[in-house]
C-alpha cells in the first residue's frame, strides 16, 4: 500500500518535472535504408515549435524545446524565442551539428586537418552566440567523430585535438551556460568513436572545469551495460548534466522512451529520486549547481511524431511516479540487513503499482485531460496539420 | 613448413575461386547521419560494371557483378549483359529491393495489407523475369521487413504471409535458378526482424524445396555468434547457398571483408575447405547441387570504392589461402586424440603463414601484377574516372 | 478497462497453469568463484521434494518437481514418487547430466572418443529407465558439449556424433515420452557450443521425429535476441516443447524469472496466450500433441531458495495474467490497420495493469493466502528447516 | 619489406619485454559446472613457482610470477622469494582475494556491514605486509563485489564504502608500491559490479593519488568494446598501470592470450608501441613513473597448463613483434593526409608479416630454442611432474 504522504509528495515532484522535447523529433527521420515521409510534418522551425507546444499543451510537463543547428537556423533567434513563448513554451538547449558537411567525412573536431577543426570550432562558437540570443543555458555536444578502420587515424592524437577544441569553446561560455558532452558507443563511426563512453566524457569535463557535464543518452551503451550504475556514479561526482531519453533493443534505435524496457527506465529514475534530482532542483554536489536537464532524443521513423512524443513523455512520467512511490525506509532497512529478496520486493512493489490514476489526478490538477494520448487523438490536431502543411519541404535530418 | 603438395593444391583451388562484387558497392553510401559523395562514382549501371570489371582486371578472381533492382534497372538487360561481357565480366545475382517505396513503411512481403504484399511479390517476380533476361542463376532476397514496437504486428501472421509469398516466387523459378534467402539480426527494423537468424531462413527453405538455400551475411549476427558453426551446420544440411562477405565491429557495419577480424574469416574459410566447397564445385550434399556463391556485400562510406573492393577480394584470398595450407592430417590426428593445444597449433601455424608470396605467384601465373592494390593505384583509373564522371547523378542507395 | 469477460477467462486459465520447479534450485549453487552455503538447504532428494511441495502449498500452481540425474539418484524411484505424492506434488521431467565426470572434459555425446560417447549414451538411456519408473513424460537434454579453442575439434563431426546418439535415445522412448532438446549460446564451452541456438535444436528434432521438441531457456541467447520471436516461430512449427524460465542481465545468470526484464516475460507470455498454449492444453499443431512444459531453471546463489522460487512463480503468474488481459480484438484491429502506436498502446495497457488483486482473488479461490511470499515468510518454514537440516551434506551441483 | 633498422629495434625491445605469469594459472580451474583435474598440477606455492620458472626457461621473457593470497599464503615469504630466485625468477604482484569467505556473500569492501568491510580491509593490509616481505611492487585489486538484483543494495553507498577502504589501503603503501585497481563488466555479480568499467576505476585512482593506477583485463568488457581505445585513453591520462592478458569469445572466458582475436591483441600492442611503453620503461606521463606491468591472467580448464602458458607468452610476443614492425612514418603520413586505405594497409602489412623467424632469432640470441612450445614438449617436464606430483591436494581456486 502506498502511504498517503508518499503519494502527496510524488504529486508535488511530478508537478515540477520538466521534459524537453527535440525539434528534430517532429521532422522526418529514418534509417540508412529509407526515410519514410509522413503527413503533417513541419516545414519550418516555427512549425516544429508548434508541435512541441502541442505536446506541452496535452502533458503539462514539456515546456521546453531543444534546437539543432543548422537544421533550426533562422535569421532572428529572438523572434523564434518569441514565437515559442507565444505558443506557451521556451527554447531550450542548442545542439551543434558537425557531421553533415562533406568536410566532415573523417571527423570534425578530431579531424587530422586543422582547417576542418577550425571550421567545426567556429560552428560551436556560433552555437554559443545563438545561446546568447535565445537565452539557452545548455550547449549540447555530440560528435559523430571516429574512425571505421584500424590504423585510420591516431586514437590518441584525436583525443588531444578534441581537448583543444573543447577548451576553446568552454572559454567562450558566459554566466551559467553549460557545456554538455555526450558520449556514444558506436555509430556512425564503427571502429572507434572519439567519445565512446562516460569515462571519456567525464575525463574531458574534469579537464574543462565545473560548467562541463556529461550527457547520458540511454541508447548509447554497449549491450548489457548497467545504465543506472552510470547515473549513480556521475551523480556522485557531480557531473551528470543531462539525459537524452529514448529506448532501444539493439543499437541506437531511438525508440520512444520507456518502450523497450520500462523496468530499466524505472531503475534509472529510482537513482535520481534517491539523489533528489528529479524535478528542477540541482543534485547535491553538482559541479554546476544547476538542475539536470531531461531531454528526449528520439526518432519516430514509422509512427506519427507528436503522438509518439506525448507517449514518451507519459512513459517517463510513469517511471518517475513509480520511483517516487518506492518505500525508501523499507528499502534501506532491507539493504542494510542484507535481505536480498526483501529489498527487491520493495522496489518491485512500487514498479507493479498502476500509477495511471495518480498521473490522471496530476493532470486534472493542472487543468488537463487525464489521458494525454486520448485527448490529443480526439483533438484533431494531426488531421489539421496534415491538411495545412502541404507544399514546401518537410523538415528532416538532411542526410 | 608448408608441404609442396599442399602449396600446389592451394594454388590450384585459388585459381578457381570466384568472388562476385556488388554493383551498389561502387555507388555512394552512408549512414542515417550522412552520405558523403566521392569523386569518380558511377552514374549508370554501365559505369558500375566498368568498375567491377576493373576489380576483376587487377585481381583475376572477380568475374561477376551482382545487380540490385531497381537501382540497376535498364531498358535492355541483354544489352547490359553484353556490356559486361565486353568488359570481361558477367552479370551475376539479381537482388530484389522491397524497402524503398513509401508503401513499405510497415513491411513488404509481411505487410498486414494484402495489396502491399501483392506489390512486393510482383517486384520479386519481375526480378525472376530479369534473371531470365540476364541469365542469372541466383535470386537473392533480403527483406527489411520487421517491426519496431512490441505489439505492432503479429509475429506469427507475418511468418505465414512471408511463407505464402516465397512459395509463389519459388514456383516461378525455372531450370537451375535458385532462391537465396538472407537473414539479418536487426536493422532497419529494431524490435523484430522477420528473418532474423539462420534457423528462420532454413525453415522457410525446407518448406520451399531444394532450390531454396540460405545466404549467410557475415555482418548479420548477434554479438558473440560463432559464424563458422553456422557455416558448418548449413553445409551439413546442404542448405548453404551463398555468402555475403563484409566485416563489422558492432552492427552491420559493412566494412571491407576481413578488415575487422581476419582470424574469423580464416576460420570460416577453414570450414569451407574442410567441406571442399571453396572453388566452383558444389559442397557435398548441397540441396541444389550447385556451387556456393561468394558475394561481397559491403559499403565504402569513407574510403574509395574500387580500391576498397580490391582490398576486400585480396583479404578473402588471403584467408582462403591460409585455410588451404592447414595440415589437415595433423589437425585431424590432434583432434581425434584430444590434443587441444596441438590442434589449435596446427590451425594457428597456417594462419600465421604469410601467404602474400603465394598469392603473388598465383597472380603472376594469371598474367597479373602480384600486388593488385599497388597496381591499381599506379594505373590512374581512379584519377581518370574522377575526371570523366562529372555531371549526371551519382549512383547511391536512394534512401 | 479490463472487460469482466476477459477477467473471468484469465482467472480460468490461471487456475490451470502449471509451473514445474527444479530440484537443484533448492540446493546450493554459485559461480566459478564461490558457492556460498545457506542454512536450511536440503541434503537429500526427499528434502528437495519437501521444499518443492512447500512452493506448491503457497502458490497452488507448482505441483511438479524436475529431477536431475545423478544428483537425485535414489535406489527406489517409485518410492520417491510416492514421497512426492504424499507431499502433494508429482515428479516431473528427468534431466540428464553428462558434464560432471572427468571423462567429459572434451565433451560427452560429441566427444571424439566413441567410448566416452557410449558412456554418455548409456547415461541417457538410464534416464529413460528412470522415466519409466517415475512415470515422467519428459527427458530434458542439455549438453555442456562444445570446444574452447578454434581447431580443437571438427564442428561438423561433432554434429554427426550428436545426431547418432540422439537417434539411439529417441528410439528408446515409449508411449507419450518426449525428448526435449535444449540449446545454449555459450557456457561452459566458450568457442563453440554443440547446440548453440534454436535452429540447431530444431534441425535435430526434425531429424528425430515428432516426439522430439525444443526447450527454450530464457537465459540462453546472445545479447539482443528477440526471444518472443523464437517462441512464435517454434509454435508455428509445432516444436516448442518446454520453457526453462529464469532471467538474466548478461550471461546465463539464472536469476529469478521476471526479475531482470518483466516486460520481456510478458511479451513471451503474450505469444503463448495468442496461441492458446498457456495452460495445460497442447498448442495447435504441436508435433507431440502435448502441452508445453513450464519449467523453472534457476539458481539462487545469494538469496534464500524457497522464497526465491515462490517469487519466481508469482512473477510468471503476473506476466501471464497481464498477457491474458490484452484486448486481442483491439490489438488485431490496430495491427491490421497499421496503427503502430495504437497497437503498442493495447499491449502496454495490459502490461501497466496491476494484476496483484486478480491473482489474490485466484489464490483465495484456491483456498490460499493472497500473498504467497508474505504467507511463506510468516509460516516459519525457513526457520524450521534451518534448525532441522543440520549435519549431513547439503545438496549442490557437485562441481 | 621491413627495414633492417626497424627489425633491429624490434629485437632490442623484444629482448626487454617482461611478462608475468599467474601462480593460479598452474592450478586446476573450471566453470561453475565442473573443475576437471589434470595430471602434474602443483600442490604447493613452490611447485607453482617451479612451473612458472619452466615457462621462463623456455621463453626467456617471463621472469616474474604473481601470487594470490590466500591461495599462495606461506609461513615464510622471504623463503618463498628465495625459492623463486633459485629457480631463476622473481615474485611479482600480490593479488588479494576478498570473495571466497562465506562472509563475502553480499560483497567485501562494499558490503553493507562495516564488520565485513573491516575484515576485507584487514586482508588488503595484510597483502601490503606480504609485499614488504616479498619486495613486490604491485598490489593488484580485483573485487568480486556487486549485486544480483535491482534494489539489493544502494549503488551509491557502495561506491562510498569502496572509496573509504581504498583510501585506507593506499595510505599504507610505502616507497614505490602501487595500488592497481582492476575493473570488470560482470561476473560473479550480474546486476551491478562495483567497479564495472575503466571510468569507475579511473575516478577512484584520481581520488587516491598518483600511485593508484588502472588494470585493464582484456576479458572484462562489454561485447563490442574497443579495448585499444581504452589503452590509448589511460596512457594519455598516465593511469594505465597494468594489463591482465587473456582472450575471450563471449564472457570472461580466460582463454590463452591472443587465441580468440589475434588482430585485436596486435592493435593493443600497437597503442603501446606508439607510446613507447612496451618494454621496461615507463610510459610518458605515467602518474607513477613506473613501467606498465604485463600480467597474464587466464585459466586452462581443459588444456595442459604450462604448455598453455608458454603459448600465451609467445602469442603476446608475436603481437608485440608485429606492432614493432609497423612503419610508423608511413602510417602517420597516411593518417595526416586522410588516406584511409593507405593507413589501414600500413597496419595490415605489419600484421600479415610472419614474425616467427624474428622471434626465433631473438630466442637463439638468448641461448634458447627458437620454438619454445616444441622445446618444452620435447623436454619431458610434463611427464616428469605428472609422475612426481602424486598425492597431496592439487592447487585450485578453492571455490
UniProtKB/TrEMBL annotation, chains A, B, C, D:
Annotated GO biological process: L-lyxose metabolic process; rhamnose catabolic process
Organism of this sequence: Klenkia brasiliensis
Keywords: Isomerase, Manganese, Metal-binding
MF GO annotations: L-rhamnose isomerase activity; metal ion binding
InterPro entries referenced in this protein's UniProt entry, alphabetically: L-rhamnose_isomerase, Rhamnose_iso-rel, Xyl_isomerase-like_sf
Superkingdom field: Bacteria
NCBIfam families xrefs: RhaI_grampos
Name used for this protein in its record: L-rhamnose isomerase / sugar isomerase
Amino acid at each position: 500500500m502506498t502511504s498517503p504522504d508518499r503519494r502527496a509528495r510524488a504529486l508535488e515532484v511530478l508537478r515540477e518535472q520538466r521534459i524537453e522535447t527535440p525539434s528534430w523529433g517532429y521532422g522526418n527521420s529514418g534509417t540508412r535504408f529509407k526515410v519514410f515521409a509522413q503527413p503533417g510534418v513541419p516545414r519550418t522551425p516555427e512549425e516544429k515549435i508548434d508541435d512541441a507546444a502541442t505536446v506541452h499543451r496535452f502533458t503539462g510537463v514539456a515546456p521546453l524545446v531543444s534546437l539543432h543547428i543548422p537544421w533550426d537556423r533562422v535569421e532572428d533567434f529572438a523572434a523564434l524565442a518569441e514565437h515559442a513563448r507565444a505558443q506557451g513554451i521556451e527554447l531550450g538547449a542548442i545542439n551543434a551539428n558537425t557531421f553533415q558537411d562533406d568536410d566532415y567525412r573523417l571527423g570534425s573536431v578530431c579531424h587530422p586537418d586543422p582547417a576542418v577543426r577550425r571550421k567545426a570550432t567556429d560552428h560551436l562558437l556560433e552555437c554559443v552566440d545563438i545561446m546568447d540570443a535565445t537565452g539557452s543555458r545548455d550547449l549540447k555536444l555530440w560528435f559523430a567523430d571516429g574512425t571505421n578502420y584500424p590504423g585510420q587515424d591516431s586514437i590518441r592524437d584525436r583525443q588531444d585535438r578534441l581537448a583543444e577544441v573543447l577548451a576553446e569553446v568552454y572559454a567562450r561560455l558566459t554566466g551559467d551556460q553549460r557545456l554538455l558532452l555526450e558520449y556514444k558507443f558506436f555509430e556512425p563511426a564503427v571502429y572507434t568513436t572519439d567519445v565512446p563512453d562516460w569515462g571519456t566524457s567525464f575525463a574531458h569535463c574534469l579537464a574543462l572545469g565545473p560548467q562541463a557535464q556529461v550527457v547520458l543518452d540511454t541508447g548509447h551503451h554497449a549491450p548489457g551495460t548497467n545504465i543506472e550504475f552510470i547515473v549513480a556514479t556521475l551523480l556522485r561526482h557531480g557531473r551528470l548534466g543531462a539525459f537524452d531519453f529514448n529506448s532501444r533493443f539493439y543499437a541506437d534505435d531511438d525508440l520512444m522512451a520507456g518502450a523497450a524496457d520500462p523496468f530499466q527506465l524505472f531503475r534509472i529514475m529510482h537513482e535520481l529520486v534517491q539523489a533528489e534530482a528529479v524535478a528542477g532542483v540541482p543534485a547535491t554536489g553538482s559541479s554546476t549547481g544547476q538542475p539536470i536537464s531531461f531531454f528526449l532524443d528520439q526518432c519516430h521513423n514509422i509512427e506519427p511524431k507528436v503522438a509518439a512524443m506525448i507517449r514518451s513523455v507519459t512513459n517517463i512520467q510513469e517511471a518517475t511516479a513509480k520511483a517516487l512511490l518506492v518505500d525508501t525506509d523499507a528499502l534501506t532497512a532491507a539493504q542494510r540487513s542484507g535481505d536480498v529478496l526483501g529489498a527487491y520486493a520493495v522496489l518491485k512493489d512500487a514498479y507493479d503499482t498502476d500509477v495511471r490514476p495518480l498521473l490522471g489526478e496530476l493532470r486534472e490538477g493542472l487543468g488537463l485531460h487525464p489521458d494525454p494520448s486520448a485527448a490529443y487523438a480526439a483533438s484533431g490536431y494531426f488531421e489539421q496539420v496534415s491538411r495545412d502543411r502541404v507544399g514546401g519541404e518537410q523538415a528532416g535530418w538532411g542526410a
